[in-house]
From TrEMBL:
<protein>
    <recommendedName>
        <fullName>Protein kinase domain-containing protein</fullName>
    </recommendedName>
</protein>
<dbReference type="GO" id="GO:0005524">
    <property type="term" value="F:ATP binding"/>
</dbReference>
<dbReference type="InterPro" id="IPR011009">
    <property type="entry name" value="Kinase-like_dom_sf"/>
</dbReference>
<dbReference type="GO" id="GO:0004672">
    <property type="term" value="F:protein kinase activity"/>
</dbReference>
<feature type="domain" description="Protein kinase">
    <location>
        <begin position="1"/>
        <end position="121"/>
    </location>
</feature>
<dbReference type="Pfam" id="PF00069">
    <property type="entry name" value="Pkinase"/>
</dbReference>
<dbReference type="InterPro" id="IPR000719">
    <property type="entry name" value="Prot_kinase_dom"/>
</dbReference>
<dbReference type="InterPro" id="IPR044576">
    <property type="entry name" value="At4g25390-like"/>
</dbReference>
Length: 142
């Protein structure tokens, strides 16, 4: 297998064909690396840092909890939150598990340059709304 660990699309690392969508996935990883200011896989020494070890998994967790901007490198002092949100959302679009759901590189460029409408967060990364139905933990036992 060719490619750099953590930058290779899941379908290619699983023996699938190389396509433009594999490049889009790799670009999504690169975009996250630039935003977070760290490598995609980081060995940690503390248990508290373990959840952040895999950048892609950490970004997905933050997206599901509605805390995308926590991904931004703390060394960035002058942050345009709208631009950061756009870049993170585009990166997550590129990192969708299904290659067919990923945008083309032309669409990525259009979104980042403002020539296309800003994207919505993919459903697989969207925070889940509060349920109208009580969970078992909230139900009183009679």
């Amino acid at each position: 297998m060719r490619g750099t660990v953590c930058y290779v699309a899941p379908e290619y690392s699983g023996g699938g064909d190389l396509s433009e969508k594999c490049d889009v996935y790799s670009f999504g990883v690169l975009l996250l690396v630039l935003i977070a200011g760290r490598r995609p896989l980081q060995v940690t020494s503390t248990v508290s840092e373990y959840q952040r070890a895999n950048l892609i998994s950490w970004a997905r967790r933050l997206a599901r909890s509605g805390k995308l901007l926590d991904l931004v490198d703390k060394k960035i002092h002058s942050l345009n939150k709208d631009q950061a949100q756009l870049c993170i959302t585009v990166a997550l679009l590129c990192l969708q598990k299904s290659p067919g759901c990923r945008p083309s590189i032309k669409e990525v460029v259009g979104m980042l340059t403002g020539n296309l409408d800003p994207p919505a967060l993919p459903i697989e990364f969207s925070p889940s709304p509060n349920s109208r139905f009580p969970s078992k933990s909230r139900m009183k036992v009679l």
